[in-house]
Amino acid sequence: METPNEMRTRIVEKAAGDADFRAWLLGDPKGALERELGVAIPASLSIEVHEESGATAHLVLPPSSKLNDADLRAVAGGFVGSLGNARSVFNW
Fold this sequence. Notes:
By secondary structure, this protein is mainly alpha-helical. Helix content is 49%, strand content 4%.
């Protein structure tokens, strides 16, 4: 089984070399990732793909240490599939 870093590397490398896959990933991240990684992504999990440019950089912050009601529900009975917790898998 691939680690999250290995999955990320595979996706980034494929997007760098395959313009059609890159366009699909930008337009339909869930569909592209589900097909490429062979996983089902829960409807409750939002995935955003950002494309950097020479004038734009992206900084991703970890979640706040305070849990809201939705986060508490996810911890209590969140998604666990063949790859474990979906939030962890896609927390690259």
